[in-house]
Amino acid sequence: MLKVEYVHRHAFATRTEARIRIATWITDFYNSRRLHSVCGFKSPIDYENDYWVNLGEGLAA
Fold first, then answer.
1. Residue with more model confidence, 16 or 28
2. pTM of this prediction?
């Protein structure tokens, strides 16, 4: 996915620039906003937040 969605769509002047921009894309978009089928079509951040909320509700019951 990384190559298809990001790397092949951009040109990088140096390897260092590529590493920085790819890392930024992963943390700013892929892990926070992109919907993942494994997570029930939620972003990983939303999935994790729901997990902790549901875990807390289960412990309170």
1. 16
2. 0.56
- In the 3-class helix/strand/coil scheme, how is the chain assigned residue by residue? CHHHHCHHHCCCCCHHHHHHHHHHHHHHHHCCCCCEHHHCCECHHHHHHHHHHHHHHHHHC
Neighbours of 53 (CB within 10 A): 10
Residue found under tokens 């997570």:
39
Distant-in-sequence contacts of 20-27, Cβ < 8 A, 24+ apart? 26/2
pLDDT per position as a tens digit, 21-56:
889 988 888 877 888 888 899 988 899 999 999 998
Structure-token pair, residue 18: 């590529």
